[in-house]
């Protein structure tokens, strides 16, 4: 069924411009031993994206459709071609395929750019930006930094970036280049968890104390508005948020992007015994599709089983590709990390982690 969907997506790529695109690889650049940047030719019309958003790649591997999200590392204000940077994961299917098998000329089906890890920009803004990145979490932050530097002459960017060792600092040269061409506007503090000999900078993981100590000093000027962007391993993100909260940074000033969440045990088998199948109606591109969702299944899983071409990517509640608005009934959402508080208040749900909790539920995919 997934294979058929892939065929369907490919065939419809030209007609369903809104949802899917086919991009041609222009160039690949090895950033570190295990990280590759893939630049795409501009499609016609040009790819419409905000710095910090991500693409969902739809690949067919071993006869099965695979979808993975990758943040755009480029800025539409600066870079002529959009790019993603992919880090190999040990045993990872898609990240290794991209690192080994992506070459110029190859065509890739993607979903249009999505994501809330974005900012507003204005030439009059006078802000302190705090960027906190770990490993491949630098990817969306790179696009945002470039955009600030070109659009906000009065703002200052601090980048606190944790990598494993000197060799694994992604965009090391590009970051140095940005510092040189923007003196005093981009301040970078590298932190290495396993430095090699000769490293004189900060060592160890980025924890709450280090983040608090660094930004306590930078947030002294009450005249400057602050904005924070955090992307990296779960523990680093949590401790950074705790540190900023203690420094009095309001939650609205902090944006986070998670690439991966350790999955907790979902509904235990015995818990599902008391649950019943529920009728769910999904409104997709104006058409209503009603189907039963059996206990333990999400609305997305049941919709895909029905053969519906519902949008999705991470299937973990992170990327928002499966976002819909609840028009009737109630759902329980196991994971809502990808949604902002405003979206939740407006009735948005993530179909990949929502199960119906009412006899009739209606969701419009938006
Ligand atoms: C919004 C968003 C943006 C992303 N942007 C980027 C990006 O810019 N660059 C990038 O390299 N990746 C990014 N990712 C992660 C990416 O989508 C994939 O999850 C990653 O490449 C692993 O896919 P895989 O097929 O290689 O691994 P899989 O074959 O899916 O997984 C292999 C094993 O690793 C575990 N795992 C999966 N993902 C991770 C992870 N990220 N960290 C730790 N363990 C994991 C799995 O549970 C499994 O055990 C992003 C994810 C999201 C949700
Ligand atoms: S598919 Fe990513 S949030 Fe649902």
List the helices and strands and how they pair.
Blueprint: H1 2-12, E1 20-32, E2 35-40, E3 54-61, E4 64-71, E5 83-87, H2 93-101, E6 107-114, E7 127-134, H3 138-151, E8 156-163, H4 172-181, E9 186-192, E10 202-203, H5 208-218, E11 225-231, H6 234-246, E12 254-257, E13 278-284, E14 287-293, H7 299-305, E15 323-328, E16 331-333, H8 341-345, E17 348-350, E18 354-356, E19 360-365
Parallel strand pairs: 7-8, 7-11, 8-9, 9-10, 11-12, 13-19
Antiparallel strand pairs: 1-2, 1-6, 2-5, 3-4, 3-6, 13-14, 15-17, 15-19, 16-18
Helix pairs in contact: 5-6
The chain binds flavin-adenine dinucleotide (FAD) and FE2/S2 (inorganic) cluster.
How would you describe this structure to a colleague?
The protein is of the alpha/beta class and 366 residues long. The chain has three domains: 2-114, Translation factors (Elongation Factor Tu (Ef-tu), domain 3); 127-257, 3-Layer(aba) Sandwich (Rossmann fold), CATH 3.40.50.80; 269-365, Ubiquitin-like (UB roll) (Roll). Helices cover 22% and strands 33% of the residues. It contains eight helices and 19 strands. It has helices spanning 2-12, 93-101, 138-151, 172-181, 208-218, 234-246, 299-305, 341-345; strands at residues 20-32, 35-40, 54-61, 64-71, 83-87, 107-114, 127-134, 156-163, 186-192, 202-203, 225-231, 254-257, 278-284, 287-293, 323-328, 331-333, 348-350, 354-356, 360-365. A six-stranded antiparallel β-sheet has the order 4-3-6-1-2-5, with helices on both faces. A six-stranded parallel β-sheet has the order 10-9-8-7-11-12, sandwiched between helices. Helix 5 packs across helix 6. The longest helix has 14 residues, at 138-151. It is globular. It starts with a helix and ends with a strand. It binds flavin-adenine dinucleotide (FAD) and FE2/S2 (inorganic) cluster. FE2/S2 (inorganic) cluster is lined by residues 312-315, 317-322, 338, 350, 352.
